[in-house]
Amino acid sequence: MSLHDYSLRRYRKGVLPVTGMALLTAGAAVVCKVRWDLLYKGLGSGLVYFKNLLTPDVGAFSELLKPALETVLIALVGTFLGTLAALLFGLAAASNVAPPWLRQSVRFLLGLERALPEVVILLFLVAAFGLGPFAGVLSLVIGAVGMLGKLFADAIEEVDPVSIESIQAVGASKVQVMYYGVLLQVLPTVVSYALFRFELSIRLSVVLGAVGAGGIGHELYRSFALLDFHRACTALLLVLVLVVVSERISVYLRSRVRQKGRPR
Amino acid sequence: MKARLFLQRATVSSLLALILLASFVYMGVNPGMLFTEFHYVVDLAGSMSPPHFSLLWMDKTIAFSVLETLSMAFLGTLAGGMLAVGCALLTAKDTMPYPWIRGIARFMVSLVRVIPSLVMVLIFVVTVGLGAFAGMLTLVLSTMGTFGQLFTEVIEATEKAPAEAIFSVGATRWQVIRFGILPQVLPSLTANFFYAFDVNVRSAVGLGIFGGGGVGFQLFLAMRVLHYRDAFALICVIVLLIVLTEKLSDGLRRRLIGRGRHRQHTKLH
């Protein structure tokens, strides 16, 4: 396609998409009220704000450790219980385990549920149960079911039917087939996804804290609101440590699981 | 052998149970609350229904806020994705020969990646004021962080032979990128742009709650003033919005590259 090629094909493949994208971008920019002058003017105050964030309040460190632990625990418990619940939902949504009507309805529910961000779920749970870690754990469990339920169902559907049949052939009961034929087969996948979800849960748990689940996210948000930047900086540093360390742990354990789960 | 296996499993499961119990005690959470306090959920559901759907066409701001959320996600994906491609070119071994530039770029991307978007949006709200612009800027940065690293991996996973062949006949570095590497990564990059849009619509709703504008902010306001019936209608809109975006993004991606393969890569790389 040379520069002097004014064919219809060139028009369709080149000019139209570019013009369309430009129009869309311009429209979106108007809707979002993108104003670079505002950003330019505000950059000064933003930078001052950011600079204040660079000096931590060392004294606050020890009193922030407890909320940080709470954030980790919310994520840990939420992930664990969420994985267990998601496994049940995954079984109910797999075609080789559940009847079609159950599979369809559970998949539909999971799809709806996945569409709700955890923060939105928490807004409602806080309205029902009040502020505190209970609502946080519950919203993480619900979020994990939405995300992991479908993944587990897909993994269960991919289980080799031959291994299920051979277990049935030696006279295993229904429960035994479920355990040896299905659950043990998908265990490496389940553990690997659960570890991945834990990494996500830590991040989410921080954000949820700001909405009302408590923990380090709450401290961070409150310090911001009270303009106590040095405390906010300490909280931010702790959050960074949590995020990075949980990611490292999750990646390391996942690589171990993948090696172990590899067929011999 | 069997006894050892049993012992191992018993140890692991009792340890897990103990940790779970200890965390419940430490947090002061009683899991039984789910059943003893369930009537609050029923009360809430009662005060939420029937959803106040007429709000959606009576109140022009709601329709506009949906548009705002979509625009935020679109601009965040476009600008953030382009920044991510730029960063990836600076970070990948195939495209950037100088280790120190690679190191700096890598550090920048991972720094942006670990800063929670909650903190970013709080800073941007101070900088440009409450609203969709602040949310959009946050999305730009978070997209750059997440997808910058992914694109680096995509570039480093390309076939080396075409690039070397082009280089060996005397192409400049830019020509090597343009003709040896870009054609290989383009399908994956485009597919990831669609995926990023899907992710960003979700985060745009969440960011709204912290002052990022859009339909999330409207939901937050409705919950704040206890207009639960309005909130329920908004929830329906949000679910519809996210489900449709997911379907659209999945469909376009599937047309670009094979089914399912791609998402797994993004989720579990």
Automatic annotation (TrEMBL), chain A:
It comes from the Bacteria. It is a multi-pass membrane protein. The keyword Hydrolase does not apply. Residues 68-250 form the ABC transmembrane type-1 domain. GO terms for molecular function: ABC-type phosphonate transporter activity. Gene3D superfamilies: MetI-like. The chain crosses the membrane at residues 72-98, 119-142, 177-195, 229-253. It is found in: Cell membrane. Keywords: Cell membrane, Membrane, Transmembrane, Transmembrane helix, Transport. One of its GO terms (cellular component) is plasma membrane. PROSITE patterns: ABC_TM1. It holds the Pfam family BPD_transp_1. Belongs to the binding-protein-dependent transport system permease family. PANTHER family: ABC TRANSPORT SYSTEM PERMEASE PROTEIN P69, PHOSPHONATES TRANSPORT SYSTEM PERMEASE PROTEIN. This is Phosphonate transport system permease protein.
TrEMBL record, chain B:
It is a multi-pass membrane protein. Residues 66-249 form the ABC transmembrane type-1 domain. One of its GO terms (cellular component) is plasma membrane. It holds the Pfam family BPD_transp_1. Keywords: Cell membrane, Membrane, Transmembrane, Transmembrane helix, Transport. PROSITE patterns: ABC_TM1 (PS50928). InterPro entries: MetI-like, MetI-like_sf, PhnE/PtxC. One of its GO terms (molecular function) is ABC-type phosphonate transporter activity. Its main location: membrane. It is found in: Cell membrane. The chain crosses the membrane at residues 62-90, 111-141, 176-197, 204-225, 231-249. PANTHER family: ABC TRANSPORT SYSTEM PERMEASE PROTEIN P69, PHOSPHONATES TRANSPORT SYSTEM PERMEASE PROTEIN. Belongs to the binding-protein-dependent transport system permease family. This is Phosphonate transport system permease protein. It comes from Dinghuibacter silviterrae. The lineage of its organism: Bacteria, Pseudomonadati, Bacteroidota, Chitinophagia, Chitinophagales.
